[in-house]
ABC transporter ATP-binding protein
Amino acid sequence: MIRIEEVSKIYHQGKPDEVRALQDISLEFFPGEVVVLTGPSGSGKSTLLALIGCMARPTQGTIYLQERRVSRLPESFLARIRRETYGFVFQQYHLLRDVSVLDNLMFPLYPAALPYKTMRERALLLLNKFDLSDRHKTNVRQLSGGEQQRVALARALMADPPIIIADEPTAHLDAELSLELLKILTELNAEGRTIIIASHDPVVYQSPLINRRIGLRHGKLVDDNNAGAGQ
Ligand SMILES: Nc1ncnc2c1ncn2[C@@H]1O[C@H](COP(=O)(O)OP(=O)(O)OP(=O)(O)O)[C@@H](O)[C@H]1O
């Protein structure tokens, strides 16, 4: 599904503050896997997620998505690939705080030029799924952290993406809400979605939901406990 070949990412290359965030990584992700990227702060987890999700390009190496080489495509193509392929969930949620829950869900789909009615129906369906129906007119600012995380997840599903990418999704949740999030991710996986999470939260990486753990240290792959399990 996603193949990463000998990928390195260097920030500020050739400058005094150069950072080798990822070094010579080769990996393959398979449909239906639930993968966690784990490792200490600064080990390269977010950078790897950004490359997988076509949000950044590697300095060296090649990335294939469904056998299509995506690592050198121009941004206009990448934007479309991101919209159609990935649902992103970030630790800071990245929601528009002074805008209603419903508009937060519909906003990222505007470039797809779907009819307003279709987007609204889809958004209301997802809000119902996440127990947020009665909050659709509420401004995000007025929601609790757990509710905001559910809105972020609902928004990630608006384009019905086959792959969910989540960067430290439990960072601002207590243990109970973290387990609730994992339950939702389990359901999304049962629907056939591939899930790739970066996390150093043991609630996440020790969860039975996870079928593959990939360890990073100083930008290098140090551990891959179940490569190919999803084949
Ligand atoms: N945009 C950037 N410009 C320069 N350096 C960066 C940038 N993004 C990340 N880095 C550096 O790259 C290295 C890897 O960072 P990354 O955020 O990928 O690690 P991480 O494992 O996700 O860390 P954390 O768990 O703290 O989020 C770090 O040394 C970081 O400072």
About this structure: The domain at 30-57+85-224 is CATH 3.40.50.300 (Rossmann fold). The CA atoms of residues 8 and 23 lie 4 Å apart. The chain is about 30% helix and 25% strand.
